[in-house]
Amino acid sequence: MLPPFFFRPGLAATVGLLAWAASMAAGAQAAAHYPSKPITLVIAYPPGGSTDAVGRMVGTELAQRLKQPVVIENLGGAGGAIGAQKVARAPADGYTLLLAANNEMAIAPLINKAIKYRVFEDFTPISLVATQPMVLVASQASGVKNTQAFLSLLRQNPGKYSYGSSGVGTALHIAGEMVQQAGDVTMTHVPYKGVAPLTNDLLGGSLEFGVFVLSSGLPHIRAGKVVALGTTEAKRSPVTPDIPALAETSAFAKVDINSWFALMGPAKLPPHVLAALRGALADTLQSPSFRAKLEASGNVMAAPGQDMGAFLKAQVAKYQQIVETAKIEDR
C-alpha cells in the first residue's frame, strides 16, 4: 500500500516517496539480517537435568555460529508444558526458541486436556538434536539380574511388584508401560516428583524396578547400585555397548522408545530465519567436538537434515497407542 503523500503533486511528493522507500528498504534489510540481537532459548525444565544439559550445549553452539548471545531461560513446570506454552505464544521472529523434549511435544498433549497449545499448528520444527535411550533397572534388593529373571518374577506374581518413573505421562512412564505391554506383565506404576526420590527408593530397596534416561541411570549402574536390565531402543546404544537392548529378549522384541531433544520455534517462522537456524544446527551436528560432548552425557547426535516434522508425527502416533492402551491420564 502506498503512503498518502504519493498522491500529492510536486516535489514534496517525490521527496516523501523517496524517504518512504528508503525506510521500507532499511526495514526489510534489518528483518533479513537475522539474528541482530540476543536469542532466548527456553528450556522447559529446571537446571541440572538431561534436557537442560543438552539445551546449554546447543545454546553455546548457536551463539558461536550465529554471532549473537543465546540466553538460557529455565522455565519448568507441568512436565514441560509451561515453557512450551511461552514459546508457542512468542512472536514468530526467531528470538524465542524452545529446546524441546518428547514430554511436552508428544506426550503431554495426549494425556492433559488442560494444555492449550497444538503441537502441529503452534510450533515450527527446526531440527532434531539428539536422542538417548531409557534404561530399565532393578534394585539390588530385588535379586533380579537379567530380563529372563525379570519376566519370570513378574509372571509368577502379577501386580505384586512396582516400577517407578519421574512422573505420570513422562517418557519414563511411557517406556515402563511399553515394557509391560510387550512382555505381557503387570507392575504397579509409582510416579515420583523427579528422578532424585525415585533413585533414593531404588537404592534403598523399597522399590523393585525403575526407568531412567540413560544419562541419569548410568552413574548408579556403573557404581553397581542398581542392575541394568536393558536399554529401550531397538539396538544397543553406542554410548553403552556393554548394556543389552531389551529388544534382544524375544518378549521385548518390539520395545523401541527413547528420549529426544529438538529445537522448535513458534509457528510461521520466516523462511530466512528458519534457514539460518537450520544451517547453524546442521553445522553443529557435523561437529566432532559436539558429538563427543553429547555422548559423554549419554546422548547420540541426530543425523543432519532429518525431517523433524515427519519424525514428530511418527512419535506422536507411537505414544498415542501406548497411552490409549494403558489409559494414562494426567489429572
Automatic annotation (TrEMBL):
Any Pfam family the entry gives: TctC
Keyword terms of this UniProt record: Signal
Ranges that cross the membrane: none
Signal peptide region: 1-28
UniProt record similarity statement: Belongs to the UPF0065 (bug) family.
PANTHER family, A to Z: BLR1237 PROTEIN, TRICARBOXYLATE-BINDING PROTEIN
Name listed for the protein in its UniProt record: Tripartite tricarboxylate transporter substrate binding protein
